[in-house]
Write a sequence for this structure.
């Protein structure tokens, strides 16, 4: 693979120190001074860490962060009248209203921004995992080569922020649910190589198990075992003397892994280190604890962390019926822990350098499947007249007008970007945002060049298709 | 104002030569003054350093202005800038040291000399980076065989030498000149100026477009280069904003001159298609073997000559122990047993190596179950993955397994893949996700791409969007190829935009014969015939090269999917491929031919970095050391320690019993969901006649654990769902009504798959089979203790749900017959996190090379992964049972089984020390782990 634009400052220093110690000695203190001379669009990072809060299954914008006219339930109302099934509530930002049940997140909106005009890809007949693949990789499947997850790109370009914390951690998604194979397809580093793939922690409360010696093995035994391995490996002469790249890479990776598993930093993964009070304040379930783990990781050198409400067909945000009731529960599930996460990182001073994003693969609507003009095959039966509360809510997949929330990492505070119509179809009508822009904005915050690409099978493969899409600079301070 | 800055900025390239020159001369003079000589130079050096410093500072300032004004970008600029400033600072310090020292005494200052030296180092690097910016970087690419400008510059120079100075050109000279010019355009201009991407509304890839010009009018004035915009642009200074191909990258002198010559001679345009990129010949002829060589094996004769030409003496051949391991792993994917190794080593027959190869080639089952992985990767055939969910994908394992068992000839396999039966159609069928896909990913196009990549070693992927920039395949050709598989006319889409042009059916290599016919079936038949023709040398070279890579670690051509790249030994590749055809494309013949050569049996050669394997630098010195594949590694552990897998996703001898599992139906929001952890209770009642019962046997396996009752009696329990418990229940069943009751537990913290697998065979006057199915009932409420008895009233219980077999591999041992000594080959199991970590690809795309580099995630899986850890623990118990506490025996056996040798005295001492006086489960388990992590085990050397 040939790489372009992917040298980091670290690499630069490393190379230079090899080339000329003196030059490096001069240029190290010079770095900050020199980069401030750069034109603003160049490679300056406003964030070191990214947390993606993934609302899996399609979160309706009209029921959450972009409320429309509230139509309370009554037997016999028409489906087409239903725009929002919750009243709206004020947030800390003037003139910004959320749907009832999101008061806590509303109270931290003075620290972040909301995009109200995300338009997902038009991929035809809906398959959640295909839209999720598109959101996470920026490419529509299938592709001729396996596309990397955005977390893998970031892991590849920036490496770990703390050498013993894997740079791409995915929390909360199991792979034993429906569409598991499709989920696996994008939880992957693709052609970048498994080295940059996700470190999976389906259950945040057992995250520690992934980073400590095997179950039932004492630290002493673990250390002795590694010592034995080193000793035996050093005695081994069957492969002959002299070094080769294969053995070097093997022994390097074994050592790294030993260091990680034996490191005091593995405590970062241990939620029991938190006070009961804090633990309980996050604990709305697995997602809440995922936010708590994300907080700990962000404070200790995590690079890219995703926390998912988890996709399981017809569950979570994938409301095919009982939409109102289920949206209410989902809001209880996410509201407090997300607000805690923002507040805690702000208080510990990490929010400035941590970009937090909340997003979903698409939105929902009571009537429309697909989007206006691109209507696709209905997957949910929705009666014209609602006689049963079960049909009250957003049950169809709507691919326009989703909300994306962002905090920290150089994002403007209190900003509302884009707008959706107040009447159905509640599509984006101002500053429509597409996935390439979202990715480029994240890369922009991290100082990753917009045209970062690798050559694979003779073609350049960019972070966003053909390197298109520009960061939305208006989002940043 | 701006223009003043612009001028200043553009002075930078001029200015920079001063500090470089002045400071270097200062250093040279300084060297002359060493040991107190030539004091007269002192004043000159002072001035040189002062002026040099001033020039360095000016250069930095001008450079900064240039960058701001002309918006250079990229890391290289940043580095250049930093170093430029560093140079200014360093030289300023040097100048200040001179200025503040007592009159001309500064030569005594060691610090001054060091600073001057550093200044020169710094200015040199800055200059080099600057030159890279101006003249283009020449990065050494990470991977094999990436070289953008692999077209023949020498040929251009030759053309130039031939034509320069001639008054008029012959027609053939005009033809050549034009084709050369078009090659230059293709390599340097098409990326921005082609029908695909027309910057400035200009395209340079067709006659019409070139002479039509772009937004600023015509670009070629025939006969007058100096009035032709195209020529003007390519001759601008390299940092000019209008220079072409682009700022910082200009054409080479010979290229510019050739274009000038072409315009001068009237800008003739040939009608011939231009083969822009080097292309491997299609035809194949068997090269003569080098005469009069002492080597006996044909491959060795060719390699003997190669070694001679490269001044290499024949490297050393591996010993018997290494040979038997290598051969076992390569042919069967298994480790030889200690007995087999001992027998082979003591065998004195001179041809024992050939005989071993022959013997192993006859082990069809193990051969098949090893090579299956290679073919699955190549044909991206898998047991799970995206596409299956909506019927958009089909497996070909039955066909593949049978083909390998029969050693079906390669050409026959190819025919059956391209013109498939129901069993083999999965390959060209592709993967269809639900919804609308990009035009370049229609399944017909996938068929063209996959046949191209896997079978022909040609990349059709680029060209399925636009004319390829790296090989001679056009959009039209890609669509022509894809149309063979399409039952309707295909419209060409360029980068997913319709063009209005309809495709015409054709194969990439039209010279092999027509594939046009009215129906898809007829076309597929034609294609299958055309593809396997011996004239299609490409098909056979591609496969031969893949096999060479598998066996020797690096292809004769790399990357193995890009067969237009040059081979490091053309005769070797062509001889092997021709010999393969001569054998009737017998795959085992090809393996035998390579493996019986001395060349295959050489010691692995050491390469310090992968750079040494690149095209151009690579020299064959012996095989490249290979890492065991995920499958070889797992199978090795299964063989000597304890089975890693018990169930298969693909069962070659698909037999009777159903692998369906049942569980309590769990509902949330009216939906069936994954079972929550906890205990569930199952009942099933059945009735037998009054006849005497002759035999009764039950099979049970529960994810995660169970207690089995029959007619109220506790009979068996188990913790490991990967194992089948086989229980004789004759004394518990009785004529009349019977009741099976199972208390089953789903473990874990989260909802996760759980299931009961059960079968019972009862023989009285007839044979009865009772299997778990949806007539069984269950509850999640703790029942009254009498629930296991037949009289218990289970009216609140509900019918169970059938969870199928998808979440569990099929347990091979789930049968009434006893079957000792089996373990499941890793090639037959579904993608597993352990296998994935060790490099088994997810087969959504063709992946013909496994990653060879070890990674952290992999090491983590090996170091603390629960899966491996549990297997080793289980193995330790077995070993403890078998060898007791005899530490010496354990160590000896371990080395023999895992490494095929005895431990050295020192190794033995270390291991015994670790085992302690009384080996226990833990110490044995740690010994296992240690030896499995050794490079000696993990690499095929």
């Amino acid at each position: 693979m040939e790489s372009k634009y992917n040298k980091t400052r670290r690499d630069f220093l490393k190379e230079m120190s090899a080339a000329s110690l003196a030059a490096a000695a001069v240029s190290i203190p010079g770095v900050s001074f020199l980069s401030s001379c750069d034109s603003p669009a160049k490679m300056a990072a406003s964030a070191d860490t990214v947390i993606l809060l993934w609302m899996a299954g399609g979160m309706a914008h009209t029921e959450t962060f972009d409320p429309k006219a509230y139509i309370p339930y009554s037997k016999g109302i028409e489906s087409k009248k239903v725009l929002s099934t919750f009243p709206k509530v004020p947030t800390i930002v003037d003139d910004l209203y959320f749907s009832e049940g999101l008061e806590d997140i509303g109270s931290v909106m003075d620290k972040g921004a909301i995009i109200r005009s995300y338009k997902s890809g038009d991929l035809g007949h809906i398959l959640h995992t295909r839209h999720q693949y598109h959101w996470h990789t920026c490419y529509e499947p299938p592709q001729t080569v396996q596309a990397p997850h955005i977390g893998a790109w970031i892991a590849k370009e920036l490496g770990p922020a703390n050498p013993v914390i894997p740079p791409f951690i995915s929390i909360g998604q199991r792979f034993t649910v429906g569409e598991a194979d499709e989920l696996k397809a994008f939880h992957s580093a693709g052609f970048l190589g498994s080295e940059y793939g996700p470190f999976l922690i389906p259950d945040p409360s057992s995250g520690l198990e992934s980073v400590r010696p095997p179950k039932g093995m004492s630290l002493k035994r673990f250390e002795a075992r590694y010592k034995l391995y080193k000793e035996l490996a050093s005695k081994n002469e069957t492969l002959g003397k002299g070094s080769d790249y294969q053995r070097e890479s093997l022994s390097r990776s074994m050592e790294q892994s030993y260091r990680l598993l034996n490191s005091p930093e593995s405590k970062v993964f241990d939620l029991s280190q938190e006070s009961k009070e804090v633990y309980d304040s996050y604990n709305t379930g697995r997602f809440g604890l995922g936010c708590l783990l994300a907080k700990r990781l962000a404070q200790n050198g995590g690079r890219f962390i995703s926390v998912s409400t988890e996709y399981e067909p017809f569950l979570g945000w994938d409301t095919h019926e009982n939409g109102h009731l289920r949206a209410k529960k989902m809001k209880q599930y996410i509201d407090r822990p997300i607000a805690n996460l923002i507040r805690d990182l702000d208080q510990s001073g990490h929010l400035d350098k941590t970009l937090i994003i909340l997003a979903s693969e698409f939105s929902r609507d009571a009537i429309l499947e697909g989007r206006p003009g691109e209507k696709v095959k209905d997957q949910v039966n929705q009666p014209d007249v609602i006689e049963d509360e079960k049909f009250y809510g957003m049950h169809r997949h709507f691919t326009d007008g989703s909300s994306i929330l962002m905090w920290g990492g150089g994002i403007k505070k209190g900003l509302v970007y884009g707008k959706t119509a107040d009447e159905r179809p509640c599509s984006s009508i101002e500053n429509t945002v597409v996935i390439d822009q979202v990715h480029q904005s994240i890369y922009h915050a991290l100082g990753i060049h917009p045209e970062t690409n690798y050559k694979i099978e003779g073609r350049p493969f960019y972070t966003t298709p053909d390197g298109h899409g520009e960061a939305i600079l208006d989002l940043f301070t | 104002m701006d223009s003043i800055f612009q001028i200043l900025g553009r002075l930078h390239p001029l200015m920079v030569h001063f500090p470089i020159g002045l400071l270097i001369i200062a250093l040279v003079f300084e060297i002359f003054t060493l040991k107190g000589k030539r004091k007269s130079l002192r004043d000159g050096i002072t001035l040189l350093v002062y002026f040099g410093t001033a020039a360095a500072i000016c250069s930095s300032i001008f450079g900064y202005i240039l960058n701001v004004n002309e918006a250079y970008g990229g890391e290289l600029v940043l580095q250049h800038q930093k170093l430029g400033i560093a140079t200014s600072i360093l030289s300023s310090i040097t100048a200040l040291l001179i200025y503040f020292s007592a009159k001309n005494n500064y030569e005594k200052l060691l610090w001054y000399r060091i600073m001057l030296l550093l200044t020169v180092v710094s200015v040199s690097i800055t200059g080099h980076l600057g030159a890279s910016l101006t003249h283009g970087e020449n990065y050494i690419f990470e991977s094999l065989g990436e070289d953008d400008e692999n077209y023949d510059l020498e040929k251009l120079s030759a053309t130039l030498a031939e034509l320069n100075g001639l008054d008029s050109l012959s027609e053939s000279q005009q033809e050549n000149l034009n084709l050369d010019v078009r090659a230059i355009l293709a390599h340097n201009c098409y990326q921005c100026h082609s029908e695909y991407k027309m910057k400035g509304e200009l395209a340079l890839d067709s006659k019409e477009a070139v002479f039509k010009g772009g937004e600023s009018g015509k670009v070629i004035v025939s006969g007058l280069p100096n009035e032709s915009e195209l020529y003007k642009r390519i001759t601008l200074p390299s940092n000019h904003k209008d220079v072409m191909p682009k700022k910082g990258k200009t054409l080479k002198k010979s290229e510019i001159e050739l274009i000038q010559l072409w315009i001068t001679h009237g800008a003739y345009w040939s009608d011939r298609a231009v083969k822009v990129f080097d292309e491997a010949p299609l035809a194949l002829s068997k090269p003569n073997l080098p005469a009069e060589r002492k080597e006996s094996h044909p491959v060795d004769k060719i390699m003997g000559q190669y070694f001679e030409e490269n001044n290499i003496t024949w490297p050393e051949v591996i010993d018997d122990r290494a040979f038997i391991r290598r051969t076992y792993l390569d042919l069967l994917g298994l480790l030889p047993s200690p007995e087999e190794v001992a027998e082979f080593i003591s065998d004195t027959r001179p041809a024992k190596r050939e005989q071993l190869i022959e013997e192993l080639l006859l082990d069809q089952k193990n051969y098949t179950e090893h090579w299956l992985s290679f073919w699955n990767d190549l044909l991206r055939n898998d047991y799970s993955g995206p596409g299956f969910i909506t019927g958009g994908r089909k497996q070909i394992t039955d066909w593949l397994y049978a083909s390998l068992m029969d050693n079906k000839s390669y050409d026959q396999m190819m025919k059956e893949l391209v013109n498939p039966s129901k069993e083999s159609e999965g390959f060209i069928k592709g993967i269809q996700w639900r919804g609308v896909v990009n035009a370049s990913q229609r399944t017909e196009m996938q068929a063209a791409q996959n046949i191209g990549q896997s079978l022909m070693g040609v990349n059709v992927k680029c060209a399925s969007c636009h004319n390829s920039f790296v090989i001679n395949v056009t959009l039209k050709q890609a669509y022509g190829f894809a149309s063979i598989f399409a039952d309707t006319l295909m419209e060409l889409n360029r980068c997913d935009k319709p063009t209005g042009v309809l495709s015409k059916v054709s194969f990439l290599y039209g010279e092999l014969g027509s594939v046009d016919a009215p129906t898809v079936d007829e076309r597929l038949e034609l294609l299958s015939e055309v593809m396997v023709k011996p004239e299609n040398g490409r098909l056979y070279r591609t496969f031969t090269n893949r096999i060479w890579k598998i066996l020797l670690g690096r292809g004769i051509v790399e990357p193995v999917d890009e067969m237009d790249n040059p081979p490091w030994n053309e005769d070797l590749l062509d001889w092997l491929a021709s010999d393969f055809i001569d054998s009737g494309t017998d795959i085992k013949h090809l393996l035998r031919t390579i493996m019986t050569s001395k060349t295959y049996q050489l010691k692995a050669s050491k390469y310090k970095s992968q750079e040494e394997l690149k095209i151009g630098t690579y020299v064959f010195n012996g095989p490249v050391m290979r890492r065991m594949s995920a499958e070889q590694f797992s199978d090795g552990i299964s063989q000597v320690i304890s089975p890693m897998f018990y169930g298969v996703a693909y069962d070659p001898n698909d037999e009777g019993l159903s692998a369906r599992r049942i569980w309590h139906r769990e509902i949330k929001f009216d939906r069936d969901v994954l079972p929550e952890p906890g205990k569930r209770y199952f009942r099933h009642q059945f009735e037998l006649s009054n006849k005497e019962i002759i035999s009764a046997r039950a099979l049970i396996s529960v994810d995660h654990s169970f207690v089995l009752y029959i007619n109220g009696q506790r009979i068996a329990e188990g913790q490991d769902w990967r194992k089948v418990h086989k229980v004789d229940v004759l004394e518990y069943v009785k004529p009349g009504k019977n009741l099976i009751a199972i208390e089953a537990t789903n473990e874990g913290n989260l909802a996760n798959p759980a299931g009961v697998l059960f079968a019972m065979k009862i023989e009285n006057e007839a044979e009865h089979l009772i299997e778990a199915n949806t007539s069984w009932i269950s509850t999640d409420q703790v029942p009254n203790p009498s629930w296991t008895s037949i009289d218990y009233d289970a009216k609140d219980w509900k019918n169970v749900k059938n969870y199928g077999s998808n979440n569990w591999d099929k347990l091979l041992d789930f049968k009434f017959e006893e079957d000792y000594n089996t373990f499941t080959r890793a090639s037959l199991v579904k993608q597993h996190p352990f296998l994935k970590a060790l490099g088994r690809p997810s087969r959504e795309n063709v992946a013909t090379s496994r990653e060879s580099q070890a990674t952290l995630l992999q090491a983590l899986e090996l170091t603390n992964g629960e899966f491996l850890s549990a297997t080793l623990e289980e193995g330790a118990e077995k070993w403890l049972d078998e060898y007791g506490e005899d530490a010496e025996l354990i160590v000896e056996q371990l080395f023999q089984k895992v490494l095929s040798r005895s431990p050295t005295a020192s190794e033995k001492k270390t291991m015994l020390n670790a085992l302690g006086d009384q080996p226990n489960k833990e110490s044995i388990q740690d010994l296992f782990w240690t030896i499995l992590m050794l490079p000696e085990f993990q690499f095929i050397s």
Observations:
- DSSP finds twelve helices and 19 strands in chain A.
